[in-house]
Structure formats: structure tokens, C-alpha cells
């Protein structure tokens, strides 16, 4: 699901150029760039109230295939090509909201993944491509039986993948969500971040409360971003530790030597983030 407020980057387009763009491909993802086309993850877009442009379908197919490939690598297990990634895309906001309500989903106004239907539902707003990649991430997590993973890593990874885009030569890049990271810099400098406390409240309602949801998503994204930026291989190990029943706290402590060390490094990284 997406957070409510729009601390969002501009919608990605295919022809994204310019100096503000930070291009990076973490070591984890580097080998994928050259081979991901070999994966044939099928993307099915059911468009309601409009006809989706052919180039949108092609671009989204590439992004979702790439995403599937990264997830296959993270979990050492392939999603079968035959499993389609189904996206229901609505031109009309009211139609989207009607479907949302009929599936008993609340809060989101942009998109969600539904665990029972195993499909994604997205409103065709200006950033619908990012939302699709975000929701598809939840689908892959579910497929790999990680849908019940702690919110911070589930949403953090979704937010991370949301930054996937294609350049004008069709290459996949990640565009960091700077707005979220700058917010985290502010939290850190205002001493508003206590990561142990944050992780203790994973299951709490804060993820759907209007006044807390941004904080939750921003910190989740910042944690995943920091880990991928500095030790991308840790994501896989942390997911494995979580799968073995460890808490988030212990899973992070295991990789970083101690949780305090992780938290200190995290804060140091964001204190002067620009
Ligand atoms: Zn989400």
C-alpha cells in the first residue's frame, strides 16, 4: 500500500535526464542489468475506462521483470514465468475507490496489493507507474512467502523499487526518493528517531494513521535505502534471519554486530544527507 501524503518524487518518465538524478546500481543489482531480459515474467494490465498506451505496457513489463529478477535473487528461488503479475488499472478515481472498498481495503488513494486475489489495484494518477512497481513488490514478497515480513522491510523495499525507471535507452535505474530521505535527515537532527522503538511498534496502527504514516514510510524507506547503499548483501541475510523467526532488532544486530552500531551508522549517514 502507498502512504497517503505526497512527499513524492516527480513521476518517473522514460526520458529522464538531468543532473539531479543520482544513478546508482548497488552491487547486488549490477549483474541483473545485463540479463534480466531473459526473464519472461508476464505482466497483465487490465485497464478500466481507458486503453493503456503500448509503450507504457512495454516499459512496465521491463520494470516488473527486473523487479522479479531481483526478488528471485534475494530469495534464491524463481518466480515461474507462467505466474502473471496482474495489475488492475483504473482511470476513474471513484471506480478505484469503489473496488478498494469492495475488497475491504482502507486508506490508500493510489494503489494496493490484495493478498486474497493476489492482484494489484492502482489508480491511474500521474505516478501510476511508480505505484505499480511498488505494489508488484508486495506481490513478489507474497509469492516468496514474505508478505508477513515486518512492515519496515516490506514497505521499505516497495518504496525502494518504486524508484525504478528506464532511461531513454531502456536501461533500468534506481532514482532515490530524495524527499523522503531529506525528511529523515530532519527527524535525525531533531532527535525524533529511535529505531529500536520504531521497530517495536511495527504492528501498530501508525502505518494507517494520517499523522504517523509519513514518518513510518520515510523511516522504513531510509532503513532499506541505507542498507542497500552500504551493504546490499545484508538485505538478503536480514530477510533470511527474519524468516527464521528472528525479530527485526536481532536480524539487524546479527549483520551489524549490534543494533546500536546499526542505529549509529544509520543516523550518521542521514545527519548530513543532501
Ligand atoms: Zn506498500
Question: What does this molecule look like?
Answer:
With 274 residues, this protein is of the alpha/beta class. It has two domains: 23-158, Collagenase ColT, N-terminal domain (Glutaredoxin); 176-274, no CATH class. It has eleven helices and six strands. Strand 1 (43-48), helix 2 and strand 2 (85-90) form a beta-alpha-beta unit. Helix 4 crosses helix 5 (151-162), helix 6 (178-189) crosses helix 8 (213-230) and helix 9 (233-243) crosses helix 10. The radius of gyration is 18 Å and the shape is globular. Zinc ion binds at residues 1-2, 134, 138, 155, 158.
Largest sheet: 4 strands, mixed
Low-confidence residue ranges: 4-28, 30-38
- The overall pLDDT, averaged over residues, is 84
Would you list the SSEs in sequence order as H and E?
A: HEHEHEEHHEEHHHHHH
What is the fold named in CATH at topology level of the largest domain?
A: Glutaredoxin
> Which geometry do the CA atoms define?
globular
Number of distinct helices: 11
Cofactors and ligands: zinc ion
CATH class of the largest domain: Alpha Beta
Query: How many structural domains does the protein architecture include?
Result: 2
Distance between the termini: 27 Å
Strand content: 5-15%
The largest beta-sheet arranges its strands as 1-2-4-3
User: Helix/strand/pairing class, anyone?
Assistant: alpha/beta
In CATH, the homologous superfamily of the largest domain goes by the name Collagenase ColT, N-terminal domain
Amino acid at each position: 500500500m502507498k502512504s497517503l501524503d505526497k512527499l513524492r518524487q516527480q513521476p518517473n518518465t522514460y526520458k529522464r535526464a538531468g543532473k539531479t538524478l543520482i544513478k546508482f546500481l548497488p552491487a547486488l543489482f549490477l549483474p541483473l542489468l545485463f540479463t534480466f531480459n531473459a526473464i519472461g515474467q508476464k505482466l497483465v494490465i487490465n485497464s478500466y475506462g481507458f486503453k493503456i498506451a503500448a509503450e507504457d505496457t512495454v516499459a512496465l513489463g521491463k520494470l516488473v521483470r527486473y523487479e522479479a529478477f531481483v526478488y528471485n535473487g534475494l530469495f534464491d528461488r524463481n518466480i515461474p514465468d507462467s505466474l502473471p503479475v496482474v495489475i488492475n488499472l483504473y482511470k476513474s478515481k471513484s471506480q478505484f475507490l469503489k473496488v478498494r472498498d469492495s475488497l475491504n481495503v482502507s486508506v490508500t488513494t493510489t494503489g494496493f496489493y490484495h493478498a486474497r486475489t493476489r492482484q494489484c489495484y492502482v489508480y491511474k494518477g500521474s505516478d501510476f507507474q511508480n505505484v505499480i512497481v511498488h505494489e508488484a513488490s508486495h506481490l513478489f514478497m507474497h509469492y516468496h512467502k514474505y508478505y508477513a515480513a515486518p512492515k519496515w522491510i516490506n514497505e521499505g523495499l516497495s518504496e525502494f523499487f518504486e524508484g525504478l525507471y528506464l532511461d531513454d535507452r531502456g536501461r533500468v535505474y534506481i532514482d532515490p526518493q530524495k524527499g523522503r530521505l531529506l525528511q529523515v535527515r530532519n527527524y535525525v537532527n531533531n532527535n525524533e528517531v529511535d529505531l529500536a522503538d520504531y521497530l517495536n511498534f511495527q504492528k501498530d496502527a501508525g502505518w494507517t494513521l494520517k499523522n504517523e504514516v509519513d514518518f513510518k514510510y520515510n523511516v522504513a524507506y531510509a532503513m532499506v535505502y541505507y542498507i542497500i547503499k552500504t551493504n546490499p548483501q545484508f538485505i538478503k541475510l536480514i530477510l533470511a534471519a527474519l524468516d527464521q523467526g528472528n525479530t527485526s532488532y536481532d536480524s539487524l544486530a546479527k549483520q551489524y554486530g549490534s543494533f546500536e552500531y546499526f542505529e549509529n551508522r544509520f543516523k550518521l549517514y542521514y545527519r548530513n544527507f543532501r
